């Protein structure tokens, strides 16, 4: 273990001093609600980060747990009256931890899998091999993302089926992890750049005009983070935005459908209306808004590396979200949200929007 160096956190010192410790963050933080302990709320993480910068704290097990149980949902930043960018602060702290040699063993395994296999699950088959289709020049490219490719495969298959039913000129990609996983864990920009450049170069080589993505985390990367580092010369759409732009002819579905806003699609990227517009296209369906929705949506609990490192905490956060559901079906627009919400096992069926549309189209 090496000495901790607060190189990136030093640049966030003014943000730490701006925090008034009002505690408004505690009312919305899914991690705090799960643990009910101040080190698991934004203001606690601010204090810890300041202690690291000042050299008053060492990155022991408790400090690392406090910083890595944040799901990076961004609800604290929305609620903060001082506009402190807590997500950036936490992620800068994580980068300093990783650069100083402090990485959770589960996260280290994930990073090694990405570097060796191109995905966090360590699967050796490429995305085209798994999806059963080879990349070729096309107007639309589908970026399935690691979870839909290797775990929630029904979502990727549903997306390809939708493109075929709509007679689109589309292709899959020889994609590797978009970089969101390593970015949330705390890896450097230099490491992420390799993934970004690989994916963009491959998409450009196929003459693609529009990239469509299922995963909210992948979407945020291409829409918000990639342009900060590489040129993105094509349109980027989440699957919900793509579907909302189409005249979908779907069979009736007489169900009360609740919608869960993924954090990376909603608070991080501002996409709220498109998924709801798609649900409203379904004949007979009734859209049910959860008590916390849109900007105030509760996090599923799985993001920010929490599900991999602290699965029981992630499950408890999922249970808190699922207890809000009073509908026949809960639909979301992110395969990773689907995975974590299903872990709650509270009875209500959870489904990705892509799967639902394909079943009814």
Please outline what is shown here.
By secondary structure, the chain is α/β, with parallel strands linked by helices.
Could you explain the architecture of this structure?
It is built from 19 helices and eight strands. The protein is α/β, with parallel strands linked by helices and 361 residues long. The protein has three domains: 9-99, Orthogonal Bundle (Fumarate Reductase Iron-sulfur Protein, Chain B, domain 2), CATH 1.10.1060.10; 108-244, Rossmann fold (3-Layer(aba) Sandwich); 256-360, Rossmann fold (3-Layer(aba) Sandwich). Helix 18 links the parallel strand 7 and strand 8 (349-352). Helix 3 (42-54) crosses helix 6 and helix 10 (153-165) packs across helix 19 (353-360). The radius of gyration is 20 Å and the shape is globular. The termini are far apart.
List the helices and strands and how they pair.
Elements (H helix, E strand, L loop, with lengths): L12 H6 L11 H6 L6 H13 L6 H8 L6 H5 L6 H14 L5 H13 L9 H5 L8 E4 L2 H5 L2 H13 L4 E3 L7 H6 L3 H17 L4 E4 L2 H10 L9 E4 H6 L11 E5 L12 H8 L5 E3 L17 H4 L1 H12 L6 E4 L2 H8 L6 E4 H8 L1
Parallel strand pairs: 1-2, 1-3, 3-4, 5-6, 5-7, 7-8
Helix pairs in contact: 3-6, 10-19
Annotation keywords:
361 residues, Fumarate Reductase Iron-sulfur Protein, Chain B, domain 2, Rossmann fold, alpha/beta
Reported for the largest beta sheet, the result is: 4 strands, parallel
Strand order of the largest sheet: 2-1-3-4
User: What CATH architecture of the largest domain would you give?
Assistant: 3-Layer(aba) Sandwich
DSSP summary: helix tally: 19
Spell out the helices and strands N to C: HHHHHHHHEHHEHHEHEHEHEHHEHEH
- Let me know the number of strands: 8
Summing up helix and strand content along with how strands pair, one would put the structural category as alpha/beta
Remind me, CATH topology of the largest domain? Rossmann fold
Question: How large is the share of residues in beta strands?
Answer: 5-15%
So what's the overall shape? globular
What is the straight-line distance between the termini?
Answer: 55 Å
Mean pLDDT reading: 96
Compute the number of structural domains.
3
| CATH level 1 class label of the largest domain | Alpha Beta
């Amino acid at each position: 273990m090496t000495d901790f160096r607060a190189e990136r956190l030093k640049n966030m010192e003014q943000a730490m001093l701006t925090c008034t410790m009002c505690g408004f963050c505690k009312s919305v933080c899914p991690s705090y609600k799960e643990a009910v302990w101040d080190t698991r709320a934004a203001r606690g993480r601010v204090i810890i980060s300041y202690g690291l910068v000042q050299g008053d704290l060492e990155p022991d097990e408790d400090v690392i747990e406090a910083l890595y149980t944040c799901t990076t949902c961004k609800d604290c930043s929305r609620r903060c009256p001082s506009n402190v960018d807590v997500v950036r602060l936490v992620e800068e702290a994580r980068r300093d931890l990783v650069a100083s040699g402090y990485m959770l063993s589960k996260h280290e395994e994930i990073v090694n899998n990405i570097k060796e296999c191109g995905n966090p699950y360590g699967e050796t088959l490429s995305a085209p091999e798994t999806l059963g289709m080879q990349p070729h020049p096309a107007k639309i490219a589908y970026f399935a993302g690691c979870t839909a490719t290797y775990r929630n495969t029904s979502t990727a298959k549903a997306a390809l089926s939708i493109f075929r039913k709509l007679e689109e000129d589309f292709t899959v990609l020889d994609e590797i992890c978009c970089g969101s996983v390593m970015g949330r864990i705390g890896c450097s920009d230099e490491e992420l750049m390799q993934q970004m450049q690989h994916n963009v170069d491959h998409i450009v080589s196929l003459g693609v005009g529009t990239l469509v993505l299922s995963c909210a985390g992948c979407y945020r990367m291409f829409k918000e983070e990639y342009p900060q580092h590489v040129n993105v010369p094509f349109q980027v759409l989440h699957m919900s935005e793509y579907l909302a732009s189409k005249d979908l002819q779907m069979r009736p579905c007489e169900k009360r459908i609740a919608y869960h806003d993924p954090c990376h699609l909603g608070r991080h990227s501002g996409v709220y209306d498109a998924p709801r517009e798609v649900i409203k296209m379904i004949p007979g369906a009734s859209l049910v808004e959860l008590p916390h929705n849109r900007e105030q949506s509760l996090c599923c609990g799985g993001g920010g590396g929490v599900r991999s490192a602290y699965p029981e905490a992630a499950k408890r956060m999922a249970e808190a979200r699922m207890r809000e559901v009073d509908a026949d079906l809960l639909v979301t627009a992110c395969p990773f949200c689907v995975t974590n919400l299903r872990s709650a096992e509270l009875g209500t069926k959870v489904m990705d929007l892509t799967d639902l549309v394909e079943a009814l189209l």
